[in-house]
Design a protein that fits this description.
Strands 1, 2, 3, 4, 5, 6, 7, 8, 9, 10, 11 and 12 form a 12-stranded mixed β-sheet that branches. The longest helix is centred in the last third of the chain and has 19 residues, at about 305-325. The chain contains 13 helices and 12 strands. Helix 7 (about 160-170) packs across helix 13 and helix 8 packs across helix 13 (about 305-325). About 40% of the residues lie in helices and about 20% in strands. The protein is α/β, with parallel strands linked by helices and about 325 residues long.
């Protein structure tokens, strides 16, 4: 009887495990890293969802969209987290994403009324450098200097694409000239953010394309004030990161629950000190001490998703032409 009871218990446990729903979220590599938001988000959501949250690192944001396009309706993903407003128009054109019903008291610096994508954080692109270094204060001065920079590929990385649109938004038709001047400052172009930032920390470049919030990591997590973000006179391009449900998800209700959880205090309070960005909804406890020291751009730049889609190919062509010479 003991053996029978034990076997029955095993069968019952197996059945219970089999019935646990699984939600698959495609996101970028740094999100799922040990030091990123992923582990804490997974734990917090599984405490309320009665599910197994599977976070899959699939490259930076632009690579995420490329993977979804490739997989199409066959994708295992239920949610994609890590696109931004420079990619949302292209994402909607695929027809692979579903509308949401999430509402929140956003504290974004822009109005948000997108019915497909839900924002979860935002920030400003910036070049991060050693705080004791003298660095240029605009793109023209950077191009005229011998400062070495490492940047990300706009075809695979949202920061890389953000840099193209930053230059385009600031300089318009003059952007090709800016890139021609910057071409000899670029040490290398990496596939994603993590590789580029690692190269900078190893001393292989004077500055790295990152965010105004990046120094907060060193200050708060490492008690290290040796990193700073350069303030550029042209202003800084804004990034709003978003997530959306796949129309073909077989866990539609669970995906909706995750998107709603994403704008809750439980999720948003994780963002500042793991993703090192501003949360889309300010947590009840406010921002961590140290964020008040960050560079505040004198001017914010942001193209609408339509404008970004319209200039993206031209901006990419200008960048490729300059760096191939």
């Amino acid at each position: 009887m003991k053996h029978l009871a034990f076997a029955a218990g095993l069968l019952g446990a197996s059945a219970a495990f089999a019935e646990t729903p699984e939600l698959t979220v495609y996101t970028y590599d740094s999100f799922v890293s040990d030091w990123g938001p992923g582990p804490a988000v997974e734990k917090a959501f599984e405490e309320v969802c009665g599910c197994d949250l599977k976070l899959v690192g699939a490259g930076d944001g632009a690579a995420l969209l490329a993977r979804i396009k490739l997989e199409g309706e066959r994708s295992d993903a239920d949610v994609v987290l890590g696109l931004d407003t420079n990619l949302t128009a292209a994402a909607k054109e695929t027809g692979l994403f579903a509308d949401h019903s999430v509402s929140a008291d956003y504290t974004l610096p822009v109005e948000w009324n997108d019915t497909t994508f839900v924002p979860y954080d935002w920030g400003y692109f910036a070049f991060v450098h050693n705080a004791d270094a003298a660095v240029p204060a605009d793109f023209k001065a950077l191009a005229d200097s011998d400062t070495k920079i490492v940047i990300q590929d706009p075809r695979s990385s949202t920061p890389g694409l953000g840099l193209l649109l930053w230059v385009k938004a600031a300089y318009g038709d003059e952007a090709p000239t800016i890139w021609k001047g910057l071409s000899d400052n670029v040490v290398t172009v990496t596939k994603g953010w993590s590789e580029a930032y690692g190269m900078f920390l190893e001393g292989e470049a004077d500055m790295v394309l990152s965010y105004t919030t990046s120094p907060a990591y060193h200050l708060i997590a490492e008690e290290d004030a040796s990193k700073a973000a350069a303030s550029f006179d042209e202003g800084h391009y804004m990034q709003v990161e978003v997530a959306a449900k796949l129309a073909g998800s077989d866990q539609s209700e669970l995906a909706d629950q995750f998107l709603a959880f994403m704008v809750s205090d439980a999720f948003q309070s994780i963002i500042p000190t793991t993703n090192w960005m501003y949360p889309a909804v300010t947590p009840a406890a406010g921002l961590p001490e140290g964020f008040e020291t960050l560079v505040q751009p004198g001017k914010s730049l942001l193209l609408s998703e339509t404008e970004a889609a319209e200039v993206r190919d031209a901006a990419l062509g200008e960048w490729l032409d300059a760096l191939s010479q």
